[in-house]
Amino acid sequence: MRKTVRTAIFPVAGMGTRFLPATKATPKELLPVIDTPLIQYAIDEAQAAGIERMVFVSHPSKSAIERHVMDDAKLRADLRARGKRDLADELQEAALCPEADDAVFTMQHEPLGLGHAVLCAREQALPGPVAVILPDDLILGKGCLGEMIEAYAASQAGHMVATMTVPREEETKKYGILSVTEARGRLLRADGMVEKPDPEAAPSREAVVGRYILGESIFESLATQEPGAGGEIQLTDAIARGAQREGLAGFRFSGTRFDCGSKAGMLQATLHLAAQDPELAPVLEEHAAMCVAPRAA
């Protein structure tokens, strides 16, 4: 089994309806946490994990993502002409260069599900297993994908999913839940997963979040996958189909995850990072004091 993970797929074609009207003109992947767009955190994580090729599955209406991701030499030249060399250097460091970096954009023209988005990257993926990163699942701390790749190389699983333990009654119905057969530290062996089960039917409390490492067979599974919930091609259905054949594992990552596909999660991530920034600490302290100050009579 080929275990080297060389490709990361970024499904970024979604409409971002939960953030309308903000996402009417600005893709949700470009919404910033403090001053860094969500997509940039995902790119940085992939680069730190040693990914060779990044495949962005986008939509024609979201060209702003490609403009952010790829280097803009004209913008940098304009900034330098205005004496903003440090800002120009910062943009160059963050951007992907068409010549030096292996970055590819492909289109998902119809909203046919996450599984379909991954399938759209089939022709662009390098040989071997692929990683999938959902940018609106922001995981801060030690790079989640890097941790997973290290664990995957030593595992016997063809597919691996990132997991976190959630309360059964309140949360299992919101996630895909792993059916765990054995736990060895951070590595969980599994025989399948169930999408958003009722609490009493949940096979465990291990919720799948937006990082995956998938064997090459995932593309054939997706190509033959029948539509599931909402008439969409569900990635979790295809992974579950191959669990017995390929082997399935969960990985309990060490970082802190924020659901930045929701307003509450975005606010939590912003406050978390703001609390670590000395320049923003006075703002948080002032806000906290206002919240506890007694109201005037």
What attributes characterize this protein structure?
297 residues; alpha/beta; Spore Coat Polysaccharide Biosynthesis Protein SpsA, Chain A; five-stranded mixed barrel; two-stranded antiparallel ribbon; 34% helix
Q: Terminal Cα separation, in Å?
A: 72 Å
What is the string of helix and strand elements?
EEEHEHHHEHEEHEHEEEHHHEEHH
Estimate nothing, just give the exact number of structural domains.
Answer: 1
Total beta strand runs: 13
Q: How much helical structure, as a percent, in the residues? A: 25-40%
Classified in CATH, the superfamily is Spore Coat Polysaccharide Biosynthesis Protein SpsA, Chain A
CATH architecture: Alpha-Beta Complex
Structural class: alpha/beta
Describe the structure.
With 297 residues, the protein is an alpha/beta fold. The protein has one domain (7-292): Spore Coat Polysaccharide Biosynthesis Protein SpsA, Chain A (Alpha-Beta Complex), CATH 3.90.550.10. It has 12 helices and 13 strands. The protein has helices spanning 38-48, 63-69, 73-81, 85-94, 114-119, 144-154, 168-171, 217-223, 235-241, 243-246, 263-274, 281-292, and strands at 7-11, 32-33, 36-37, 53-58, 102-107, 130-133, 137-140, 159-165, 176-184, 187-195, 206-214, 248-252, 256-259. The strands form 3 sheets. It has a 5-stranded mixed β-barrel with strand order 8-11-9-10-12. The protein has a two-stranded antiparallel sheet with strand order 2-3. Strands 7-13 form a two-stranded antiparallel sheet. Helix 3 (73-81) runs antiparallel to helix 4 (85-94). The radius of gyration is 20 Å and the shape is globular.
